[in-house]
């Protein structure tokens, strides 16, 4: 048995029920801003002179944090992520890795060498980077490859 008050509300023809969407839209924008601010964007600058090899069984790296990028061009020259910085020899690579390792550890991250070697480069140049990094105290190395043949 409905009360008189409920019968009046249900029986009234002049009132339409409206849902106010403003608080929900405000909440969606607040959540959107929160996720944009809380997320971190990791950008690895690629050297246009380096054409990585293709590895069909490659896996995408889970985490991009703590990477120290070293490019090895097809002519055997070594460059940092910022391609304007060129390393003349293994000692310069070692010094650079030590400096970057300290920066990454200060952030609380585990440093990892991200080696981007050209597909035409000799392995001896890649080995030079791996050995210099190991002497600098970074023994985790990941290689940059394409998962499929680009055409």
TrEMBL record:
Name of the protein described by the UniProt record: Biopolymer transporter ExbD
InterPro entries assigned: ExbD (IPR003400)
PANTHER family documented for this protein: BIOPOLYMER TRANSPORT PROTEIN EXBD-RELATED (PTHR30558:SF3), EXBD MEMBRANE COMPONENT OF PMF-DRIVEN MACROMOLECULE IMPORT SYSTEM (PTHR30558)
Subcellular location: Cell membrane
Residue stretches spanning the membrane: 24-44
Membrane topology classification: Single-pass membrane protein; Single-pass type II membrane protein
Listed GO biological process terms: protein transport
Any one cellular-component term (Gene Ontology): plasma membrane
Molecular function in Gene Ontology: transmembrane transporter activity
Family the entry assigns: Belongs to the ExbD/TolR family.
Alphabetical keyword list: Cell membrane, Membrane, Protein transport, Transmembrane, Transmembrane helix, Transport
Organism listed in the record: Oceaniferula marina
């Amino acid at each position: 048995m409905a009360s008189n008050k409920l019968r009046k509300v249900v029986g009234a023809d002049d009132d339409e029920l409206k849902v106010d969407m403003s608080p929900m839209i405000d909440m969606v924008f607040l959540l959107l801003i929160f996720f944009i601010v809380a997320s971190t964007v990791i950008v690895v600058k690629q050297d246009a002179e380096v054409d990585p090899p293709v590895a069909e069984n490659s896996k995408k790296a889970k985490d991009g944090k703590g990477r120290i990028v070293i490019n090895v061009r097809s002519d055997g020259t070594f460059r940092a992520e910022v391609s304007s910085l060129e390393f003349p020899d293994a000692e310069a690579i070692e010094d650079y890795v030590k400096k970057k390792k300290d920066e990454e550890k200060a952030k609380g991250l585990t440093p990892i060498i991200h080696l981007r070697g050209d597909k035409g480069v000799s392995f001896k140049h890649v080995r030079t980077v791996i050995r210099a990094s190991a002497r600098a105290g970074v023994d985790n190395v990941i290689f940059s490859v394409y998962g499929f043949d680009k055409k």
